[in-house]
Amino acid sequence: MQQTVNSIIEDIAGKYPLCEYAFGEVVNVPFSSHVREICKTGCGRYGKCWACPPSCGEIETLIKKCRQYEHFFLFSTVTAVEDAWNAEACLRMKTDHEAITRNIRRELQKYLPDCLVLSTGCDLCERCACPDEPCRHPEERLSSLESHGIVLMLLAESVGMSCSFGSDTVIFFSIVFY
């Protein structure tokens, strides 16, 4: 049965320009509530986006939600940038990755209706309605891996995926829990 699910995921993912991907067991995903500090101190979206902390939920609740699944599919895309150390410029380049992730999620939900998909954080609206108004696209928004306490660098390394291809590229990751 599991091989069949993985084959379905590979067939869907194969339609998109992914850099790398890996399958794994959720029990091996490194979680830490301390990852939220990165969100709070290093991201301008903290408190300004429904898909991001603290609006996306309590960290313990989100980690528990992820751990309810048995398997994951982690994938990455790569985009050329002038300076991979310019975090603001890199975040502006994530639009294609987010579109790919939403498309993969849409297709996977036909087979895995209860899957949970996380990515780099929502980019659907030019300016998020948070905190003044409800989310305009609650069914389409994607929270980040970090918002759910996933230690991405450790996870990628543990499944043999690259986290860097040089100073002129940026790698974006998404994960599907199923």
For the largest beta-sheet, the strand count, sense and barrel status come to:
4 strands, antiparallel
Query: How would you describe the shape?
Result: globular
Share in helix: 25-40%
Class computed from helices, strands and strand pairing? alpha+beta
Number of helices: 6
Strand content: 15-25%
Structure keywords:
178 residues; alpha+beta; 4-stranded antiparallel beta sheet; 6 helices; 31% helix; globular
Q: Could you walk me through the main structural features you see in this protein, from its secondary elements to its overall organization?
A:
The chain is of the alpha+beta class. It has one domain. The protein is built from six helices and four strands; from the N terminus they run αβααβααβαβ. The protein has a four-stranded antiparallel sheet, covered by helices on one side. It is globular, with a radius of gyration of 15 Å. It starts with a helix and ends with a strand. The mean pLDDT is 91.
